[in-house]
Amino acid sequence: MSIRSSLASHSAALRKLALASLCAIGMGLALTASAEKPYPEPAAKDRTCYLFAYFTGNNPDQEQIRFAVSRDGRHFFALNGDKPVLDAKTFARTGGVRDPHIMRNEDGGFYMVATDMTSSKGWDSNRGLVLLKSDDLINWSAKAINFPERFPEMPGIRDVLHVWAPQTIYDPAAKRYLIYVALMFKGGVNRMYGVYANDDFTDLEGEPMYMFGKPGVHVLDADIIKFNGKYHMFYCGKEKVISDTLFPGKWEDPEPDYKLDPGFAIEGSSVYPLVNTDTYVFMGDLFRDGRWYFAETKDMKTFTQGDFSVDFHARHGSVVSIARSELDAVLKKWGKPEKFELPRQNNPIIEAFYADPGTLYSEKTGKYYIYPTHDGVPGWGGKDFQVFSSDDLKNWKYERTILTLGEDVKWSSGNAWAPCIMERRQPDGSYKYYFYFCGALKGDGRKCVGVAVADDPLGPFVDTGKPIVDFKPAGVRGGQEIDPDVFHDPVSGKYYLYWGNGYMAGGELADDMLSVKRDTVKVFQPGRTFREGTNVIYRDGKYYFSWSVDDTGSPNYHVRYATADSPLGDLTVPRDNIVIEKDVSRGILGTGHHQILKVHGTDDEWRIVYHRFAWQNGKVMDGPGFHREVCIDKLEFNPDGSIKKVVPTL
């Protein structure tokens, strides 16, 4: 907060916050503890929308938290008609809050901190802050902390006049969340203090400790961001210091060529990145004339004004990047602003990093399901399998984790890869679901195929206790026993399992679906292009075998196909047999490990569900083999039955 005549606002960032002992209903919003987020947060590259938390002025009705949204981080539109989304009267001791700072925590939820104060009581009236926490941006828990009461042994705390503009940052050295806040004691000036939050962010631990200050100078409204290995603290609007460590830090003067001069009195500074670029935005409250200052920087030293706008009057606030699903949730809750436009990019269809999608249309539920590899884990080392559902193949909902290797699957130590699933109706009209998956065998690490069974597409799935494929077919010496595909032959009514990396094999399943009939196992000859990821479908009397070519970490990873006259017949490989491949001009690389799915209720409508590389900052992410995203596109056939080459889309 500012010691100036108009006390602007405050950038306060809070990561993990408090469970509310003071829970209530306000503005139609339940301030209650929300459930633990059931799946990892959307990947950073998928958080392409933005949310702005702010307050609006100097009376209790204006000293409330409001939200605005943006699809590009530059042009913001107020939610809820610029009315509060939280009623501070239900959780703040003073009945109002200023300087909200919002951030995403390491668990994928959100923290927000704010100054517990209404200016109508005087600029020296506040004694504490408010901690807020949410998993979904809609349901929040809150706790007000009064510093003289919470830290009675702290020297001078009884005479504290300001507990202003708190913010939070994760301290990787301490592996804890640090709240930093401007404190001013009677007869002194504002200086920055830091205090750690407890593990579940319901309280503060220890006493606030001195962090940074200057003799005779008010230091407040600090915003800290890590950039190129150093911590940059912006304070008092445009001032900056730098440190190699966070807390305690040795804060030093900025680079000699550092220059930030808005040309107006400014406070409440905040810095946020524009996702998938190397650009950061500095914003601040031009409190004297009711405007905002925005500038872009790539080096934290030089700043250039760009094209930014807000359709509301805001004071000291902060911005956090959010995913499309999170944006949809707040628009559903508080309505879409009149002039807000939301162009859609339909691929990828699942947020965060996933690959190797196994697909299912369920007759039981009338829904589609995707069971992918949980990606983004170095060395392809994931242990969990998740499931997503959809009514229309366009909008996908995360459901739950259905199987964990090492826990639910005792024989496997990890490498949860490339699942597939089959729904089978039982004689009594009920359904069983057979989930085939890859896992590393405990002891020697060999990759094998396992199977788990459930009565519902969402589980619970029960592993059979041993691999279904832990052998190499006769004549095969190399490769791996991975990438299963299960197929129901509509002609014979039989079920088949296919697998293999480096070789393509398949065999008929036993009647119980839990073992392969060894005497039926065949090694196919698709040509030298085969690598892995077999998929089999039936259409108009032909069996279509498709597979992935090259390595999954290669930009040239793509899909080819062949045909056969039976599920275990010899393959006929067309001359032009590419199903889908990269499109460098649009940054689409590594298109592979797919399944072809018929749209339910249609005569001949098909989709290909596959993965490709994730991009960030205009390039493929580090570790392209395990930073992949799931996409879907239309697949069509020519009149002669050949597959038209798919054009991958955004």
Describe the 3D structure.
The protein is mainly β and 650 residues long. It has two domains: 25-334, Glycosyl hydrolase domain, family 43 (Tachylectin-2, Chain A), CATH 2.115.10.20; 354-635, 5 Propeller (Tachylectin-2, Chain A), CATH 2.115.10. Helix content is 2%, strand content 41%. The chain has a five-stranded mixed β-sheet with strand order 20-5-4-3-21. It has a four-stranded antiparallel β-sheet with strand order 6-7-8-9. Strands 10-11-12-13 form a four-stranded antiparallel β-sheet, with no helix packed on it. The chain is elongated and about 90 Å long. It starts with 24 loop residues before the first strand and ends in a 15-residue tail after the last strand. Mean pLDDT is 90; it is low at 1-39.
Short description:
The protein has 650 residues and is mostly beta strands. It has two domains: 25-334, Tachylectin-2, Chain A (5 Propeller), CATH 2.115.10.20; 354-635, Glycosyl hydrolase domain, family 43 (Tachylectin-2, Chain A).
Strand order, sheet with most strands: 20-5-4-3-21
Average pLDDT, all residues:
90
Please give the count of helices: 2
Helix content: under 10%
Low-confidence stretches: 1-39
Number of strands: 42
How far apart, in Å, are the first and last alpha carbons?
Answer: 44 Å
Output the radius of gyration: 29 Å
Counting helices, strands and paired strands, the structural category is: mainly beta
Number of domains: 2
CATH class of the largest domain: Mainly Beta
Features:
650 residues; mainly beta; Tachylectin-2, Chain A; 2 domains; 5-stranded mixed β-sheet; 4-stranded antiparallel β-sheet; 42 strands; elongated; disordered N terminus
